Amino acid sequence: MTRTAPANPIVLIPARLAATRLPGKPLADIAGTPMIVHVWRRAVAAEMGPVVVACADRAIAEAVASAGGRAVLTNPHHPTGSDRIHEAIGRIDPSGRHDAVVNVQGDLPLLDPAAVRVAVAGLADPETDIATLAAIIEDEAALADTSVNKVVAGFADPARPARALYFSKAAVPWGEGPHYEHIGLYAYRRAALDRFVTLPRGVLEQRERLEQLRALEAGMCFSVSLIDPTRLGVQVDTPADLERARVLMKVWSQ
């Protein structure tokens, strides 16, 4: 392999108002600021390169611009965030200067900027196409919860990335030992993102309803790095999550 670690990454944050469980959540107020602006600020603080919000709605773009950020409007009908960021990077950087694209979910208002740096570091391995994050599951209820996505990886050394072998909503693998929650923050090599969005939906992807399985079924190499779960903060999917984020933001700002 001749690939090297990316030298010029860009961070893209996909966002749309039409969320099923919490409509309008990118603009949800947290401590007087729209959630998408909190995410943008934390991504900027990671200092991994330019940060652009790839959005489906003009209201999101206006909120980001009002905070001093940059947003690009994309096709509102994209089925996934990966498709959205792929359109955005093609418009922002058609010449391919940025050799890695970091997909930061737009519902992580308390994300530790260091987590973004950990994900990008996973691309230092020349065999890795896509790098992502995970955290040890310590709550038995979370282990049984099918809304908590799990990743199977054999960490010989928890301080070093491991190869992701499978993703599931089930509590896998069987037997004694830790289980890991997959944190949906991705660092793609530019060529890997270009390839990923052209792949047909995989059999296992459709069964598990997990987009990342498409890459594994196509033979792409996923690396996963462990982080402390507090670096995630809270992922806002429901009204209860939003209230928790508001409480934590208030506590952390004191």
Keywords:
globular, two-stranded antiparallel ribbon, 11 strands, 31% helix
SSE inventory with pairings:
Elements: E1 9-15, E2 29-30, E3 33-34, H1 35-45, E4 51-55, H2 58-66, E5 70-73, H3 81-92, E6 100-103, H4 113-121, E7 130-136, H5 140-144, E8 150-153, E9 162-168, E10 180-189, H6 190-196, H7 203-208, H8 213-217, E11 222-226, H9 239-252
Parallel strand pairs: 1-4, 1-6, 4-5, 7-11
Antiparallel strand pairs: 2-3, 6-10, 7-10, 8-9, 8-10, 9-11
Strand content: 15-25%
What is the helix content? 25-40%
Largest sheet: 5 strands, mixed, barrel
Mean pLDDT: 94
Number of helices: 9
> What radius of gyration results from the CA coordinates?
17 Å
Report the order of strands and helices: EEEHEHEHEHEHEEEHHHEH
Q: Report strand order across the widest sheet.
A: 7-10-8-9-11
Low-confidence stretches: none
* Number of extended strands: 11
Structural class: alpha/beta
Give the CA-based shape: globular
Termini gap: 49 Å
